[in-house]
Amino acid sequence: MKRYVFAALCCMPLALIAQRANILKKAYFHQGANQGVQVKGRPQIELGTIAFYFDQTPRIESSIVQKKGETLQLLFLPNIAVTPELMQALAAIRTQAENQPFSVRFAVKNDASRKGLEITLTYPTDAVGVKYDHFNSIGLQKGIALRFYNKSLISQINQIGKHIITTAALTPRVFIDCGHGGVDCGAVGNAVKEKDVSLNVGLSIAGLLKEQGLCVTLSRIADEFVPLDARTTLANRSNADLFVSIHANSAPNAAANGIETFFFDADLLKEGECFFSTLCERKQAKDQQQIKQMKSNQLAHHVHSALISTVQSAHSVIDRTIKPAISQVLLGTQMPSVLVEIGFVTNLQEAVLLSQKAYQEKIAHGIATGIMHYLGRA
Ligand SMILES: [Zn+2]
């Protein structure tokens, strides 16, 4: 069977074969709070995540060389094509990683025998651990999440026998992400732009939570463009206890309407390889994802139910329920994270409501109440 396939490929014009390359569509670098392995403040096990998106699931060939306390790791992804735009994104990731205890370099190989994307990671063997997972993103692209862990911290946790080190914050820190902004309008329908609605609702939530004595950081406070990984990096560095992203929906069917909430679900990740030396370290890294998933699920339930009951007290809005998902911001944050789709701008009735200040404040009130419930403060 395979021989026939090969024969068919050989007969194809070269251009057609070239089109079959697996194209790198996007690359993001979600950076953690820690600027080095020496941890100050609240330590976080994850140092950062580089997320790649491809047309098709890529194959990954890995090889490791250990030298004098340093690991040199080569990940080779055959048959990957990288556009000039993505080359720039990769160069930016390399520069950003200069602040990290690991380094990352990218090279596109185009030799006759070796075509593809080469990723070279260098890190201190005792201080950094690396693993990657596969996932399917919304839009059916194939994702790879390459994660870097603070191995020194994992060793400390193992030694003192505590599952996770946290310092109970007297004042909970909340991160509100107002979706889209600037050149990125998000969904547009019935003359309503998602970026305007998400900003107004986010600012209202922040105001309500500050009145309750909480510490709040916003991804943006004006109509400006903020890249997705800049949002997650800011959230991680603000040491937030939770992350809520505000969005409005759109659909080709104008009748579609209602509110839905997404939470990060580690079960949607398909485990790739883990380059930790001990089973215990691997388990800690996995546990970290499971804890985030469990808490994100709880946060989603509190936020969604408070939002639905607040809005339904005055309007007949459809409850589209809580759903697991891996969206870019949910993947890159290191704290419990949810994304709320507060209604459809493509539905006339909902668009009219979403554009009204009173309705925006009602939505904000519902979400803020849910956050307070989650924090055990209401
Ligand atoms: Zn959106």
What is the gist of this entry?
The chain has 378 residues and is α/β, with parallel strands linked by helices. It is built from ten helices and 18 strands. Helix 4 crosses helix 7 (279-312).
What would you say this structure looks like, in words?
The protein has 378 residues and is of the alpha/beta class. The chain contains ten helices and 18 strands. The chain has two domains: 19-160, Immunoglobulin-like (Sandwich), CATH 2.60.40; 173-374, Aminopeptidase. It has helices at residues 2-11, 14-19, 84-96, 151-160, 194-211, 228-237, 279-312, 328-332, 348-354, 357-374; strands at residues 22-31, 46-54, 61-67, 70-78, 80-81, 103-110, 115-124, 128-136, 142-150, 173-178, 188-189, 192-193, 215-218, 242-249, 259-264, 270-274, 319-325, 337-344. Strand 11 and strand 12 (192-193) form a beta hairpin. The model is unreliable at 1-19, 36-40 and 163-168 (pLDDT under 50). Bound molecules: zinc ion. Zinc ion binds at residues 179-180, 186, 194, 247.
